[in-house]
Amino acid sequence: MNLKLRVWRQKGPEDKGRMVTYEVTDISPDASFLEMLDVLNERLILEGDEPIAFDHDCREGICGMCGMMINGVAHGPERATTTCQLHMRHFNDGDSIDIEPWRAAAFPVIKDLVVNRGAFDEIIQAGGYITAPTGTAPDAHATPIPKADADAAFEAATCIGCGACVAACPNGSSMLFTAAKVAHLGLMPQGQPERASRVISMIEAQDEAGFGGCTNAGECTTVCPKGIPLNLIGRLNSDYIKAVSGR
Ligand code: SF4
Ligand code: FES
C-alpha cells in the first residue's frame, strides 16, 4: 500500500507544532498501524531526520500506552480496537491519513504524538485502592460474590487507561475512566469500606487535574477499545450523590 500521512510534529511542550506530510510506500496490509509508523521512522532515521515520537508498549491491546487521533477518531476507524491492534487492511491504497496526539487540556503534548497522561495517575492515587488486613491470603471463595456483580466488576476492570475517552469527549472529560475505576472496586465486597470516600476523592482529583464535566455526549464509550459502557457514569453519579449527602 502507498499512503500519504499528515503527522503532527511538535519538538516539545513549548513548541507550537505543525502537520508534516510524508509519503510511505510498500506497506503490507497486514502491518499494524504502529508497524507502519515504524517503517516510516526507520526511513527518517536513515535520512538523518528525527523519528516520530509515539507511545507504545505491549502492542497487544492490553497496556493502554498507545493512542493517537487517526483521521480525527481516537484509535482510528475500527470499533473496540487499540491503535496497536489496528491493521492497515482497514485502509485503502492511496489513502491520506491524518495522525495527531490526544487533544485535551489535561493531557499536554510532550512531543509529537506523546501526551502526558499523569492526570490519570492522580485520579487513581486519590482512591483506586482498597484497604485490606495483611496476613495470609484468604481462601479464594471465602467471600461469596454474586456472579452478576463479579462480571460487572470485571467488565469495568478491563479499562486500560488509554485516555481515548478523554480525547474523544468535547469537554475533555475523564468521567468514563473514573466511572470504570470507581465501579470495579465499588461492585465488590472488598471495596465497600471506602466506597463513599473513594468516589468523592476521585471526582475531586479529576476536577483538580483539569478534566471537563460530562454532558452525556457518549463519544467516550464509542471510541473506548474495551467497550466500557456509558451506564457506569450513571452509577458513578449515583454513588457520588449518595456519598456527599451521607446516605
Ligand atoms: S474507559 Fe476506555 S477509552 Fe477510557 S481510558 Fe478506559 S479503556 Fe481507555
Ligand atoms: S501498545 Fe499496549 S495497548 Fe497498544
Describe the structure.
The model has no long low-confidence stretch (mean pLDDT 97). It is elongated and about 60 Å long. It has 247 residues and is an alpha+beta fold. It starts with a strand and ends with a helix. It has a five-stranded mixed β-sheet with strand order 2-1-5-3-4. A two-stranded antiparallel sheet has the order 6-7. Helices cover 34% and strands 11% of the residues. It is built from eight helices and seven strands; from the N terminus they run E-E-H-E-E-E-E-E-H-H-H-H-H-H-H. It has helices at residues 33-46, 118-127, 147-157, 164-168, 175-186, 195-208, 219-223, 231-244, and strands spanning 3-9, 18-24, 69-70, 73-74, 96-100, 109-111, 114-115. Strand 6 (109-111) and strand 7 form a beta hairpin. Helix 6 (195-208) crosses helix 8. The chain binds iron/sulfur cluster (SF4) and FE2/S2 (inorganic) cluster (FES).
Topology:
Blueprint: E1 3-9, E2 18-24, H1 33-46, E3 69-70, E4 73-74, E5 96-100, E6 109-111, E7 114-115, H2 118-127, H3 147-157, H4 164-168, H5 175-186, H6 195-208, H7 219-223, H8 231-244
Parallel strand pairs: 1-5
Antiparallel strand pairs: 1-2, 3-4, 3-5, 6-7
Labels describing this entry:
single chain; 247 residues; alpha+beta; 5-stranded mixed sheet; two-stranded antiparallel ribbon; 8 helices; elongated; binds iron/sulfur cluster; binds FE2/S2 (inorganic) cluster
Strand content: 5-15%
**If helices are DSSP runs of H or I spanning 4 or more residues, what is the number of helices?**
8
Low-confidence stretches: none
| Gross morphology | elongated
Overall pLDDT level: 97
* Secondary-structure element series: EEHEEEEEHHHHHHH
Over the alpha carbons, how many angstroms does the gyration radius reach?
20 Å
Which class do the helix and strand fractions yield? alpha+beta
> Would you report the number of β strands?
7
**Ligands bound to this protein structure:** iron/sulfur cluster, FE2/S2 (inorganic) cluster
Largest sheet: 5 strands, mixed
Distance between the termini: 60 Å
